[in-house]
Prior knowledge:
By secondary structure, this protein is mainly alpha-helical. Helix content is about 65%, strand content about 0%. It has 22 helices and 2 strands. The protein has helices at about 5-20, 20-30, 35-55, 65-85, 85-90, 95-110, 125-140, 140-150, 155-165, 175-200, 205-215, 235-245, 250-260, 265, 270-295, 295-310, 325-340, 350-370, 385-410, 420-430, 450-465, 470, and strands spanning about 380, 385. It has a two-stranded antiparallel ribbon with strand order 1-2. The mean pLDDT is about 90.
Amino acid sequence: MNKRLVIRLQSSILLIEAAAMLPSLLVSIIYRDGATHAFLKTIGLILLFALPMHYFSRPIEKNLRAKEGFVTVGSAWVLLSVFGGLPFVFSGLLPRFEDAVFEAVSGFTTTGASVLTQFDDAPRGIMFWRSFTHWIGGMGVLVLTLALLPQMTGRTSHLARAESPGPSFSKVLPKMGDSAKIMYLIYAALTMLQFVLLVFVGRMSLFDAAIHAMSTAGTGGFSNYGSSVAAFNSSAVDVIITVFMIVFGINFALYYRLLIGDFKSFFKNEELRWYLGIALFSIVAVSLLIMPQYGNFFSALRYGSFQVSSIISTTGFVTADFDLWPSAAKMIILLLMFIGSCAGSTAGGMKVVRITLMSKNISREISKTFQPRKVQVVHLDGKGVDNSMLFQISLFICAYVILTLIGAFVVSLDGRYDMLSNFTACITCVSNVGPGFGAVGPTRNFAGYSTFSKYVLSLLMLCGRLELFPILVLFHPDVWRKG
């Protein structure tokens, strides 16, 4: 393994994290919230740690192999989360290290699960950083690094592919650095558009609008209010956030196709049609199921559409306690936690494209039972899908379910919560959703778990955000052998 190159990349990523804290530091200075020292200390520690790494690790060979790409991505996210949690510790908002790491992991992975219980007097700079981690992590820290430092290494596609959500990375331009820049420009433009609309409706301050725009863009769900979006009690705010949660759950490569005038590719994309179809069906079904609780269909539609959009996009904002909804509605919510949104979006979950291809593959296997000699090919967007890709997807889904079950068992050893709470806590962490059911429901949080369980859940969040293997590969002994 080219350890010098891996270390060099790690140091570059940490230096970018230090730079990313500057907006939060500025917010802290403007509002005089008493947390300025927390950012200064953290930035100082990062520089103290990263600069020697950067200086003494000049690689001779700059070509990045697949193994090194996975190791770089997996270990970088661990380091980012550790250092990203320090402002919470230094500010005193989350003085326990495991809580700070949990919150930072939840932020960068855009999960939105929280251990925070103090919102009223929380420093604004810290709350800004909390949501800004969503915005950075949504599109990908390594993708941001490629956009800012495109020439730092050869064969950067291994970094992007290891971090990109979905079976494959959507490369819109020949050069990976150029693709990363285009993606981030689209991302920033959509975030700014939502920010302007939230300010325009007049129910949010500039600070509130920035917090919720960044959290929506990253499909994370952190709010600066304990009751989340419900604190605004505004149908206009609900509608804007609902629409943008769906928008950020769409593959960003499709937005590029729109920009260059390729409308056909956008509207004929099969994953997009499945995604919107699942969302629409779920909205109608949930709204009908909860209508008796809300008195009329329009009120039910307001809350049903918001929560369905929040869960399928894995954002995790709440305007209603869906833990009190009928069992059938809760079952739909649970299934949506597994499915998630589109590949190449900022959302989590298994991804709609995988569910689509598995559904077609199952249909093909059923057909083979009575037509064994007929040659049948699974198609997506009119193109045949290789059997090796279908095998990889099957393997991913199996690993996803097994990891969730193992996590649920390990967390249940605490003996603190019931089976439903522990199971959905693990589902929501692996799928990067945020709220679960029971003790981790929409009106509660993860603060009651033990230190050990918080680290386990943090690991599950990292696995889910990086599509399992960049984290799991760190535990494989062959990765650390020479060659």
